[in-house]
């Protein structure tokens, strides 16, 4: 099927909405739109960051997921206590594949789960004493821990525990930063508020810690990589490009990052943001307080990488600018060979995306480098400013769906018939059973990295491996096959 | 009376950002914008009006200021 025209896309949205009762239809209609790249302000055609409708299947997470899972979790030399009942921490443990180096359980704690395991008596009598005991225990068992964060689960907010007081008291006693994070899961409509709360906690408890410390020798080419969670090694693939340019990466936020890196970030010259949605708050704060400029960059696919490297270099002097050109030239043969190999196999294939808060627009360039076309995209928890940025990236009359429901996404796929879907684990098996090639774009389907030139090679291979896999034609049950095709 | 963060974008225009409302708009005009004072009524590109008592000397951007809605 050819790409949809504007009218067809509008008709498709109307058709899908027909299934809802009137009230739900009215609400959902605001979240679905046909893209028009000339629109400057997304709020005129799409509404985002609103509460999901009861009764629909949404794919969103909670504030705790946004804080512990995304922002704080990857900081490797801190212990992140899942404060509350045991489940939230246990089920979210090590699922995000934020790679790091170090000896787990000795000086880094990334894949471990620490929880206060609330019981009935803790809910009734309060859990502050238990938290104190837990912090002491952590410090005894893991003396190399650099700091502790207390990630609240829902009951903490409901019973009114004073985790701030405990954190302050214990922080003084142990002389280590102990950060209370009020990221109870019921706050906000999605994990997005969790990111914001986590950013605010970093602002209040971490950022200013070394303001008076002049022992760190700042250089003219210091940068911080912000909002790269090192999924499958992404941050490492990005970091080498920046270092080859002659920049010094002082901090990685927060994939493979450490507490002291975060404390040193106010001393850098430029903040580079990859995931705008989850870390723009802290970048804005650092711009205001320390005068550090920030810029968004995109390391998916050679076109965007070259664009971003030049944009980054423009902040620095001519040496860096010349180096940026050298880096691009150095990898040119490599990425051209990849495109030459995979583009003929992927040319013209259509992709539908539905991911979190950054990839629905960031990976578009990488697909285009491979000759593929993104015909629909949507975010779980984006805000208006994300859609402002998305609408320019996407082609005319492509579908935009905010907080798409399970039903809508299935119907869109049935009608648009994409050759590939990029989304998360909850969507994966539905679409694979429908016979549609699928890649998980949250965790790179246990592959990666996808950032940088090295990542692009893996990205191209993975897309080819999925789209051109012979299994997709074998999915029909034998008794459903017609006599002719059997 | 929301807290508004004002910063310059790449093109040099002033951006009006309200974190709570998740709103980021370009400022199209400021009533008083002289080397001595900055403030008064501020009009955004989406047509909304906001008010701040003129500040003197002008603040250095980026900074966070408290604005009133223009129609109040």
UniProtKB/TrEMBL annotation, chain A:
Gene3D superfamilies recorded: Nitrogenase molybdenum iron protein domain (3.40.50.1980)
Cofactor: [7Fe-Mo-9S-C-homocitryl] cluster; [8Fe-7S] cluster
Listed PROSITE patterns: NITROGENASE_1_1, NITROGENASE_1_2
GO molecular function, a single term: nitrogenase activity
GO cellular component: molybdenum-iron nitrogenase complex
Enzyme class: oxidoreductase
Keyword Transcription regulation: no
InterPro entries listed in its UniProt record: Nase/OxRdtase_comp1, Nase_comp1_asu, Nase_comp1_CS, Nase_Mo-Fe_asu
Top-level taxon in the UniProt lineage: Bacteria
Record's catalysed reaction(s): N2 + 8 reduced [2Fe-2S]-[ferredoxin] + 16 ATP + 16 H2O = H2 + 8 oxidized [2Fe-2S]-[ferredoxin] + 2 NH4(+) + 16 ADP + 16 phosphate + 6 H(+)
Domain Nitrogenase/oxidoreductase component intervals: 62-467
Subunit record text: Tetramer of two alpha and two beta chains. Forms complex with the iron protein (nitrogenase component 2).
Family: Belongs to the NifD/NifK/NifE/NifN family.
UniProt function note: This molybdenum-iron protein is part of the nitrogenase complex that catalyzes the key enzymatic reactions in nitrogen fixation.
Name assigned to this protein: Nitrogenase protein alpha chain
From TrEMBL, chain B:
One BP annotation, GO: nitrogen fixation
Pfam families linked to this entry: NifT
Listed InterPro entries: NifT (IPR009727), NifT/FixU_barrel-like_dom_sf (IPR024044)
Signal peptide range in chain numbering: none
NCBIfam families given in the database record: nifT_nitrog (TIGR02934)
Protein name: Nitrogen fixation protein NifT
Biological source species: Allochromatium warmingii (Chromatium warmingii)
């Amino acid at each position: 099927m050819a790409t949809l025209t504007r009218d067809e896309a509008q008709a498709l949205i109307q058709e899908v909405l027909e299934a809802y009762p009137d009230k739900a239809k009215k609400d959902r209609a605001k979240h679905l739109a046909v893209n028009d790249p000339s629109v400057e302000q997304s709020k005129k055609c799409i509404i985002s960051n609103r509460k999901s409708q009861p009764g629909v299947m949404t794919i969103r997470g909670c504030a705790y997921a946004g804080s512990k899972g995304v922002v704080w979790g990857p900081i490797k030399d801190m212990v992140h206590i899942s404060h509350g009942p045991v489940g939230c921490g246990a089920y979210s443990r090590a699922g995000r594949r934020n790679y790091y180096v170090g000896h787990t359980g000795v000086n880094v704690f990334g894949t471990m789960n620490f929880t206060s395991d609330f019981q009935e008596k803790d809910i009734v009598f309060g859990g502050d004493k238990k938290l104190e005991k837990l912090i002491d225990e952590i410090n005894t068992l893991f003396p190399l821990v650099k700091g502790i964060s207390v990630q609240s689960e829902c009951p903490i907010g409901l019973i009114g525990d004073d985790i701030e007081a405990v954190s302050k008291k214990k922080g003084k006693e142990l002389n280590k930063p102990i950060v209370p994070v009020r990221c109870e899961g019921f706050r906000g409509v999605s994990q997005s508020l969790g990111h914001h709360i986590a950013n605010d906690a970093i602002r209040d408890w971490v950022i200013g810690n070394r303001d008076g410390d002049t022992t760190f020798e700042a250089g003219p080419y210091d940068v911080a990589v912000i909002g790269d969670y090192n999924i499958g090694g992404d941050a490492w693939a990005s970091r080498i490009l920046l270092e080859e340019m002659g920049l010094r990466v002082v901090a990685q936020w927060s994939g493979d990052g450490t507490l002291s890196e975060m404390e040193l970030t106010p001393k850098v010259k430029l903040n580079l943001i990859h995931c705008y949605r989850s870390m723009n708050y802290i970048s804005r704060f650092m711009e205001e307080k320390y005068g550090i400029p920030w810029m968004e960059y995109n390391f998916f696919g050679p076109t965007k990488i070259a664009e971003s490297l030049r944009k980054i270099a423009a902040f620095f002097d001519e040496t860096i600018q010349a180096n940026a050109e050298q880096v691009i030239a150095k990898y040119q043969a490599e990425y051209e060979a990849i495109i030459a190999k995979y583009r003929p196999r992927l040319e013209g294939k259509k992709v539908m995306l539905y991911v979190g808060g950054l990839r629905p627009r960031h990976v578009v360039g990488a697909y285009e480098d491979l000759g593929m076309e993104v015909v629909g995209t949507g975010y779980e928890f984006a805000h208006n400013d994300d859609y402002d940025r998305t609408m320019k990236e996407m082609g005319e009359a492509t579908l935009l769906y905010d907080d798409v429901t399970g039903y809508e996404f299935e119907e869109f796929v049935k009608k648009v018939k994409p050759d590939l879907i990029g989304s998360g684990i909850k969507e994966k098996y539905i679409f694979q059973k429908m016979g549609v090639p699928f890649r998980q774009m949250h965790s790179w389907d246990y592959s990666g990295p996808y950032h940088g030139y090295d990542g692009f090679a893996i990205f191209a291979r993975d897309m080819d491996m999925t789209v051109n896999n012979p299994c997709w034609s074998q999915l029909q049950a034998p008794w459903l096959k017609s006599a002719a095709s059997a | 009376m929301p807290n508004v963060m004002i910063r310059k974008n790449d093109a040099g225009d002033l951006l009006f950002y309200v974190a709570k409302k998740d709103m980021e708009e370009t400022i199209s005009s400021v009533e008083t914008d002289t080397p001595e004072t900055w403030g008064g009524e501020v009009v955004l590109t989406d047509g909304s009006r906001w008010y701040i008592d003129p500040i003197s000397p002008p603040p250095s951007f980026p900074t966070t200021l408290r604005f009133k809605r223009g129609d109040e």
